[in-house]
């Protein structure tokens, strides 16, 4: 999207942290924004950060894991603004703990929100973007945990890898429809994600993670997250990524080495003998993806121009 003035952005997890940062930046840039969040009280606090007469902001309560509720939230957004142009699949829970002690409740909750919520967003909102035919964009907040695994966060990492794969798969399908697609992969950002256990629904309470997470929450809030990037800066970077239609919106240069180590290790794991398909003369079936080559060239040209 090259013009975003007047466009409508539907932001899940929009009442806190980087979702709210994006909502504020997008609104200042002339967009209308829908703040969709599971917590009505947080929506109320968030709305107070916008000018009192700001008719361009709508709060809707939504659990992204609830498909029927998602349809109602999208209906409410369209009833207010007519169209949705930008979907930001940002709602997420920072479920952290060793896989060795994970319960099914941990898996079900972590995947229902961090992966299922993204799928539900695409299934609900994408047909509505297509219907009006104007340019659009889908951004999903993954994480550096969607680029390389680190720390005891296996469930989180599983979901974040999945949504990066989802965005890379969706992008070429939507390119001819003038709908951009980005995987947003931030590093540490100063948000409330450390208070994750407060959000755990009762049906997922069978967990060994809960007590440890609750004990760590104050430490994370006071000592770790304040070192993270500010949500408003994140919002600016995501806006720039939408305007440029970047495939990956990356915000933290300090994680480059970790990514490099993973990519290099994968490349070093390929066998060096001729591929079986090439051996039988079926080179055309060897899988490549020119989309990545084009994106690399585009980003290198951008870098050279700045
Ligand atoms: P946050 O906790 O400040 O904001 C997340 C918002 O999502 C909250 O307002 C929460 O109520 C909402 N939410 C949670 N479950 C929901 C559900 N089922 N339906 C609708 N809304 C729901 O945290 P933050 O950091 O702003 O999180 C946003 C995204 O950023 C998440 O996807 C997270 O995984 C990701 N992320 C966060 C990083 C960080 O350092 N804070 C780093 C990398 C990625």
Under CATH at level 1, the class stands as Alpha Beta
CATH architecture: 3-Layer(aba) Sandwich
Which residue ranges are poorly predicted, with pLDDT under 50 across at least 5 consecutive positions? Answer: none
Strand order of the largest sheet: 3-2-1-4-5-6-7
Here the CATH topology equals: Rossmann fold
What level of helicity do the residues show? 40-55%
Q: What is the overall number of helices? A: 10
SSE order, one letter for each helix or strand? EHEHEHEHEHEHHEHHH
Task: Describe, in plain words, how this protein is organized in 3D.
The chain is α/β, with parallel strands linked by helices and 306 residues long. It has a single domain (8-254), classed as NAD(P)-binding Rossmann-like Domain (Rossmann fold, 3-Layer(aba) Sandwich), CATH 3.40.50.720. It has helices at 17-28, 40-47, 67-81, 104-132, 154-174, 209-224, 231-244, 256-268, 276-279, 290-305; strands spanning 8-12, 32-37, 57-61, 86-89, 136-141, 179-185, 248-250. It has a seven-stranded parallel β-sheet with strand order 3-2-1-4-5-6-7, sandwiched between helices. It is globular and about 65 Å long. The mean pLDDT is 95. The structure holds 1,4-dihydronicotinamide adenine dinucleotide. The site of 1,4-dihydronicotinamide adenine dinucleotide has 32 residues, from helix 1 and helix 4.
